[in-house]
Structure of ADP-ribose pyrophosphatase YjhB, NUDIX family:
Amino acid sequence: MTEPRRPKLGAIAVVVHEGHTLLVQRRNAPNAGLWGFPGGHVELGETALEAAARELLEETGVIATPTGYLTNIDVIAQADDGVVQHHYLLAAVLCTYVSGTPVADDDAMDAAWVPLDAALTGDRPMSENVDKVLRLALGLSQTAASGET
């Protein structure tokens, strides 16, 4: 008997630093060629917060501290006949920059600090929801900086 297909859990790292956010241009499907937040699969025994920090380091060489969850995103692709090709549930994790200069690894074509206004207006081909997740991150970052709870 085969196991039923289930969504795969992933985590994305959302880093805002000095008026920029860190994005990668994906090399592989899904979203090949599009810009989005660094991230990947959550490993067994690993929290989504830990996965976001690990994937960020692996994909870009940047070190950041995960500070909390922003939202969850479903990425579901269906064939023309309605059959689900893949389903990822991504935990978007807000991270505080610590150190490092972005360098793309083999999963990414490029990694760069993108000005916030450019990321919000989509001046390059973006993965779905980058602007929405970034707006959430900016709202939380500003609240934390002002000391509000």
